[in-house]
Amino acid sequence: VMPLQVNRKQKILDGHSGVAYTFVRELGEGAFGKAILCKTNNIEWHQGARYVVLKRSDLTKTFRAAADQKAVDTEVEVLKKMHPHPNVVQYFSSFCDLGGCYSIVIEYANEGDLHQLLEVRQTSKTPLKERYIQAWLRQLLAGLQHMHAHRILHRDLKPRNIFLHRDRNSRHQVVKIGDFGISKVLEHTNDMASTTVGTPFYMAPELFDNKPYDGKTDVWSLGCVVYECAAFKRPFLGQTYAALITRIVQGEYAALPKGYSADLTRIVAQMLQVDSPARASIPQLLGDSYITRPLTSCPSLPPFLERKKRLGLCSFGESVLCVEASTRRWVMAKCLALEPNGMDADKIADLVTEVQAMIAIRSPHFVPYRLPGPRPPSGLFFLFSPASPPRPPPPP
Description:
Layout: E1 11-13, E2 20-30, E3 33-40, E4 51-57, H1 65-81, E5 91-96, E6 102-107, H2 114-124, H3 130-149, E7 152-153, E8 162-166, E9 173-177, E10 184-185, H4 205-208, H5 216-231, H6 241-250, H7 262-271, H8 282-286, H9 289-292, E11 305-314, E12 317-324, E13 330-337, H10 345-361, E14 369-370, E15 379-384
Antiparallel strand pairs: 1-2, 2-3, 3-4, 4-6, 5-6, 7-10, 8-9, 11-12, 12-13, 13-15, 14-15
């Protein structure tokens, strides 16, 4: 990520709160205005965030001012209604400045949007590893579940509206759902919506038949997004709008590329069921074994380690409390899965280099590392020692 170049001359003031925003750079332009990255002078007001996004609309200069105003009002209504969730772009505030521009202040996702990432991967012909798609799917389902619990339908889920973020001190990437300009707030839990909106390539079949719809329309759109992550193309294409609708209503799409699991193919098929009642719901998908199991299969421990207790899971395997068979010492083993579903060669090399550096330090202020010998075929193992044995239960 390039360092941010801040233009300190341009400031935007929220007259109500007194918070000032310094222009950094423009992020993009949409139908209702521009999105700009700003630095705030009050991080407490934005829950610790130093950089935020201002979505600015000058409604006096737009051709469809009434419709644009409605879209802005809808987005503010939706964002205000929801409690914060890690997989939904967070709303901070909204205000009208002295220049007559209306601004919505939202969370900044520092790794762009999913559309940008897919373009880069497609250009470089670098397929996405399934563990990333699986992790994103799990997070997006959680975000949609949160929205639907607040009786909000997104209605325009697509790669451009899915944002990627990584904290400075974390390797974990988070995906966030954003852009709620045409979302629908339902008054009651079992309400059905009926207006036709959204981006045609990601729209569910029931929308073209003027049928009422519910949260399963967002499931269809998410299925299209997951397919696009694997295939680098949309599942439904057509030379004309009519041809596109025909393909969607018939549910015809090409198989996923080779290299992806049968489980991912099955999940996509469940999400792209033409018949809405037969389509998987978000609770069903979140309960599916493909979503609930670890992102990679954990390698078997080598025979010289006796498993005692799992300490935790990570993206590439697990941490296990063990006893060494020969010495009877307690150790913590970090077991990392290798390809095809685990770490690639570059990540393995980086990790081995890191561990070798830790071994060489031999300082009482660092956790002692050691390699247990030749690498087994199923996985890569590092031992952290000494590890404290589990505490006995307190006496009754």
